[in-house]
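Re: beginner question about structure tokens

> Can someone show what the tokenized structure looks like for a real chain? I only ever see the sequence side.

Sure, here's an example I had lying around. Input first:
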Amino acid sequence: MKRNGICGSRLLAFVALFASFFVATNFAYAADDVPTGAFIVRPAKVELDIKPGEEQTTILTLLNGTALPLSVSTSYEDIAGNAQQSPNDEPVKLLGTTGSSYSLKDLFFAHDTSVDMLSGEEVQIPITVKIPKDAEAGGRYGSVILTFKPILSPGSPQNANVAIESRLATLFFVRILGDAKESGQLVKFGIFNDVKTVLKPTLAEPLRFQVTYENTGTVHLNPYGLLTLSPLVGKPVSVVIDPQAVLPGATRMREVDIRDEFSVGYYRAHLNLNRGYGNNVDVADVSFWIVPGTAGIIMTIVGLVLFAWLIRRSLSLSKHSVK
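And the corresponding structure tokens:
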């Protein structure tokens, strides 16, 4: 199922450039495209490479799109890989006051930890990550939590005295430069639920594949690849699998939906997945059948019945002619 080395790397060369545009928006807790009337934090995710003993500062932009003034406070939490029961589950979780073996929360620094914002106001908050000189190479993962609630005026109604708090998080993926262990692999590939026969896909019910990747190293990886579907007759269809970060020690499940038009018949799906480091590529194949949907099955049965009736009628007429 898997193969190391540079095999398939040429096929994926163009994918790397195209897919790089998607990396920054994965794991989005803070929204990058939110309609007017919301509190917005940008960016949703930050990736940093820092040497031991050095620091880097990132600017978070806050926009109060609500109709009320807001009080905003800043706090920090570590994050870790979430044990996904399905690809729809969030791949990471906030750890609250609990630390992790890849802790980052104590390495954050900000001069201002709270700010009041008028309706429509935009504020920029510098967040600095400071790496100790003796820090080991590898990954550190945390989040900057922005907690916001309305500022109620003295004339507010009595039942509005309790302001509702909400939170948004910008995730930080920090790599401390040095001799970190990069190691990961594709552990599962196939049609969702491992079926070998699927109904003809539609926009509402696409052809759905599952790709599962395991990170066994000490730094996060961004695997990406190309999925190609080949029918017995006709042209192949290819779909780019964009990079999505996988934390150290985590196994991430993801879905790949294909909504193209497909004819009924036999297909072969071929996956080339770059592990996210070096030119290491995993390959996997799965074969399956696409069968008609309910309407197609009914039409096929009606057609077969009609065909059988015509054959029987033709034979009956032939017998009468002989007599």
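Each token stands for a local structural state, so reading them left to right follows the chain. The helical segments are 9-19, 294-322.
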